[in-house]
Each structure stands twice: as structure tokens, then as C-alpha cells.
Amino acid sequence: MSDRFQAVVIGGGPAGYVCAIRLGQLGIKTACIESRGSLGGTCLNVGCIPSKSLLNLSEEFHKVQNLADKGIEVGEVRLNLTKMMKSKDKAVTILTKGVEFLLKKNKVSYFKGIGSLKSKNEILIKDDQNKESLIHADKIIIATGSLPVSLPGIDFDEKIIVSSTGALKLEKVPKKLIVVGGGYIGLEMGSVWSRLGSEVHVVEFLDHITPGMDKEISIEFMKILKKQGIKFHMKHKVESIKKDKLGAIVTTSDKDGNKKNFECDVVLISVGRKPNTNNLNLEKIGIKLDDKKRIKTKDNFQTNLDNIYAIGDVIEGPMLAHKAEDEGIAVAENIAGQSGHVNYDTIPGVIYTTPEVASIGKTEEELKEKDIKYKIGKFSFMANSRAKAIDDTEGFVKILADEKTDKVLGAHLIGPHAGELIAEIGIAMEFGASSEDIARTCHAHPTFSEAVKEAALSVDKRAIHS
């Protein structure tokens, strides 16, 4: 006799565990299945959390090396990479155990193993000893996340040719690191190893980094990263990657067909991620996929089988942990008969380099494409008191507002704490605020958030400090 649940979530990442917790809170008998052996998914185990730990630690290392200019003189600064990695791993362990506690607290049954669909109501679980068990569910939520994509014919060995997972676990600082792809993940990991002493080269097929980001921010971002020592090779296509005794040779070609060889210790391939929908038996039970192997869903996250839902990276939309979490809560509330909803127009994106980059809503390019008339307000951190006081003045805040109604349509930030500052714009947009609403809100002085207020004032050409 199999265990019976009202709802079963396959996947214990940000989409899955959040969904399971919310279902538990709503009094629904719930189980969560996770194959990794620890909860939290890619984000907590080999993504957001360990990368942010290394970004912070590498930035601290860089800062200590440059304190003498600010009147703080220290002795020789040395890197102990083993201890740094242990610190990163400790943060991951504490948080994954914390998620396990939260499932238990909310009476969610936790199964360790690989889950696959035997039928529309039955899930087969195979544990790490290949022992199989069967559970029954009235509702099933698929939240199995995504996997890193490599280039055609090139496999990750996670030692020399690495994905983001391998880049988080290198045992020594590579003398030379080639990053293939100028997106969020590649630039974050490139920044980490650059600060720790690597010579970092970014190879990008397009003529700009961070595709999809507001172009003005993208241009400024690349200028700053260049000043930090990262080298860029734009409009270059990777032709081959071949390992040798010393590391690897990356062969590229430009738009004119000119080839170039890069010898390096490590190659990080960061060209995107793909939905993790294999081995679920989706086709066998008739669940429809799109041409990118994503699960097709309706507005309420239902698949074509009305008792099976899908959320997170396995469906269309940005592959972001916070988007996945919001979908997890929304689908749980829908299952409970409430009105769960996700506003996809106000999902922020953040790059945790130094300086940080954050974006929400429409870019200038998108507004032009849709022929929407808009106004721009900008304010530089160079004129922000707090930024000036701590000598962290690179970047600016940019707000886009409707030309007639003044409604905030988007915002794009590059500068100190941009990832935190973007939340203010998110709240404003959720309430349909105008730039004047932000401008008339009193902001504490001296704070970085004053740059947001000044940018809002600038929309109406009345910034005070510029």
C-alpha cells in the first residue's frame, strides 16, 4: 500500500520547498521529493548562496589589500583558499539544514531520492541504494529546476572545463581563466577569481555583455569590469576547446573568420541553463513540452493534465530563484482554493559583482520597440553623500516613467547595494506609483537610497544634488 498525499512536490529547490512549506501552512498533507541529498536545489547548494559567499569573501580580500590608501595599514595579506571554501560550504550546510527543519516544522514529509511519474497520480521514488517506493498524490507539482548548458560536443569535467558548479569548487586559483559567455553567472564567477588573482578573459558572441539588460547599464558595467582587469573579447565565437597537459586551449573566431587561441588553466562555460525535465516520464503520461523542453502551463501553472502543475525553471520565464519562490507560493494557494498570482512585470534581476547591477521592469530598448513614450531620470552615485563618504561612487540610478502618466515603467541601477535598492522600485511598481511618489517620499540622510529619490526627481528635471 503506497503512502497517500493530497499534494506531492517533485524537487526541493526554491520553487519546490517553498511550495511544500506553503501547502503545509494551508493544512494540505504534503510530501517533497529531492534527489540531491540536501534541500535548497541549485540555488542553495551550487548556485546563488555559495557564489554570493565567494563574491563577498573575494571582495573582502580585495579590500584588505587596498586599505593602506585609506589609512589602515596591515601586514602581508595572504589567501587561504581552503579556509575560504570551508567558510562557503559552512554557509550552505547551515541553510540546507534550515530548510529541512522548516519542512518538518510544517509537517511536510521529505523523501530523498529521484522521483518520476508512474501515472498521473503515482510517483515512483528511487533512493541512493536503488530501493524503490511508490507514493500516491491527488495533486503533483513539478519543480525540478534546471541544469547548466555546455557547448555542442563539449562535456564538463568540472576540473578544467567547468560549469558554475565546478567554478565554485576549484582547488587552486587558476593563473588564467577563460569565461565563455558574458551573462550574469559568468561575470560573477569571473569577478571572484579575478579578485583572487586570476587573469580573466571573457569571450562573448554578441557585441555586448548581459543580454536583455538596459543597454546603457550594460555599457557602463563593461567599462567598470575592464577597469578591474577583466579582459573582453566581443563578437567571438568558440570553435573548439581542447584539453592539454597544462589545461586547455580555447579556439575562437571573430566575425571576419580570424581565429585566435587562448591557452588557459580553466575554462568556465556559462552560456545558459536548460530545464531539468528528463527522467520524469513526462511524455509517457502525456504532459506537453515546448520546443525548449519546458513544461507547457496555463496561467494557474496547470499542465495539460489538470492535477499536475509545474513551476520554476522547468516552465517559461526567467530562471531566477525569487521568481520560482513566488510561483511556489502562488500554486500552493491556487490548490488551496485561494487566488495565487505572480506579477512578471516586477521581477527584479541582480548581478552580485562589485558594483552590483539591478534591474526591474522595462528597459529603454523594450519601450522603444513597443513605441511607448517615456521620460528618464538619472542620478550618479558620484553625487551621493554616503557613497562619497565611503569612496564607493561608481555607477548610477536610472528610472523610466511614462511620459503622460509618470507611472514608473522600469528602473536600472549599477552601484553600491543596487540589489537592495531595487526593492524600493519594486514596491512602487506594485502599487502603480509615479516617479513623483518616490520623489516625495522622505529618504534618510546620508543613505544610498537617496540616489533613488534623486533619480525620481530627475525624471521631472528637478534633482537637487546634480
Low-confidence stretches: none
Q: Helicity, in percent?
A: 25-40%
Structural class by helix and strand composition: alpha/beta
- Count every beta strand, where a strand is a DSSP E run of 2 or more residues: 22
CATH architecture name of the largest domain: 3-Layer(bba) Sandwich
3D shape: globular
Measured between the Cα atoms of the first and last residue, the distance is: 72 Å
For the largest beta-sheet, the strand count, sense and barrel status come to:
7 strands, mixed
Radius of gyration: 24 Å
What's the number of structural domains? Answer: 3
Fold and architecture overview:
The protein has 466 residues and is an alpha/beta fold. It has three domains: 3-148 and 274-342, FAD/NAD(P)-binding domain; 161-271, FAD/NAD(P)-binding domain (3-Layer(bba) Sandwich); 346-459, Enolase-like, domain 1, CATH 3.30.390. Helices cover 32% and strands 25% of the residues. The chain is built from 14 helices and 22 strands. Strands 1, 2, 3, 4, 5, 6 and 17 form a seven-stranded mixed sheet that branches. A five-stranded parallel sheet has the order 8-15-9-10-11. A hairpin with a 4-residue loop joins strand 4 (114-117) and strand 5.
Quick summary:
With 466 residues, the protein is of the alpha/beta class.
SSE diagram, text form:
Blueprint: E1 3-10, H1 14-25, E2 30-34, H2 41-46, H3 48-65, H4 81-105, E3 109-112, E4 114-117, E5 122-126, E6 132-142, E7 146-148, E8 161-162, H5 164-167, E9 176-180, H6 184-195, E10 199-204, H7 215-227, E11 231-234, E12 237-243, E13 248-253, E14 259-264, E15 266-269, E16 273-275, H8 282-285, E17 308-310, H9 321-335, E18 349-351, E19 356-361, H10 364-369, E20 374-380, H11 385-389, E21 396-402, E22 408-415, H12 418-430, H13 435-439, H14 450-459
Parallel strand pairs: 1-2, 1-6, 2-3, 6-17, 8-15, 9-10, 9-15, 10-11
Antiparallel strand pairs: 4-5, 5-6, 7-16, 12-13, 13-14, 18-19, 19-22, 20-21, 21-22
Helix pairs in contact: 1-9, 3-4, 3-6
